[in-house]
Amino acid sequence: MKKKNPNIDSKQSLKDIYRRNRYAIDDRFVIRDGKKHRCAIICPGGGYSCVCSFVEGVPFARALNDMGISALIVYYRVRGKAKFPNPQDDLARAVKEIHEKSEEYHLDMTNYSVWGASAGGHLVGTFGTGEMGYSHYRLPKPGALILTYPVTSLEKEITHMGTRDNLIGKEASREVELKRSVYTNVDANYPPTFIWCGDADDTVPMENTLRMRKALEEMHIKHKCRIFPGVDHGVGLGIGTAAEGWIKEAIEFWELL
After folding, report:
1. How far apart (Å, rounded) are the C-alpha atoms in residues 239 and 245?
2. How far apart are alpha carbons 240 and 176 in whole angstroms?
3. CA 191 – CA 28 distance, rounded (Å)
4. pLDDT in tens, 173-204
């Protein structure tokens, strides 16, 4: 009998496959006990071709719930509807709507965090920038960004090509690649950031994390970067790998801000 993968929610995978390609918020993981809880907003990955909540949405949300944190998962437009700035507009819309419902959801939004993995890491990374993110949309600055094996560059030589092509198009120029990358847009107002990847990532090169780390260092942004040995892409919570426990580290980073 095949052993169950603890990093994947198999029931959610079917829902993700058949979900309509449109904006939505999954609020099933708001803790509804009448008490106020901290808020984490999650953008799963999927190369801007799908939203893989089954690995980087629901499992993250459940782990956050176990630590007393309310979580909401954002479904953003993908594939033919993913052209910039549609996903960015969707994340901004979600943040605005979640803030507006904070009393209903009993959320403490004073230091909210935004989590993104892979292409979702690109989306969340852009949310930290002035031109493409919270400031552009006139939204409150996140207390922290949590980036899991993120795409931070759209440059052909180091990006994930599906992410790049879905967002900016196959014919995009070098200028557009740099303009819509994350690491090239880090400024002095960028939120504190926890970022990690594995050194065996064959999908999104580790260089994406290294360039982001350098950009954060150069702008003196509070951050923590972890690179785990032997870890590939798409491992989610990383249970059974060297990355296991990264989510607790990320929460500790966020809570100390």
Report:
1. 8
2. 39
3. 27
4. 999 999 999 999 999 999 999 999 999 999 99
pLDDT at 139: 98
3-state secondary structure of 71: strand
Q: Partners of 73 in the beta sheet?
A: 26, 42
Assess contact for 240 and 214: CB atoms under 8 A.
Answer: no
Beta strand pairing call for 70-75 and 24-26: antiparallel
Kindly report the pTM of this predicted structure: 0.97
Give per-residue pLDDT as tens, 77-129: 999 999 999 999 999 999 999 999 999 999 999 999 999 999 999 999 999 99
Alpha carbons 103 and 108: distance in angstroms, whole number:
9
Q: How far apart are CA 189 and CA 187, in angstroms?
A: 5
DSSP three-state, residue 167: helix
Q: Give dist(CA 121, CA 118) in Å, integer.
A: 5
**Single-letter amino acid code for the residue at 130:** G
Q: Cβ(151)–Cβ(160) under 8 Å? A: yes
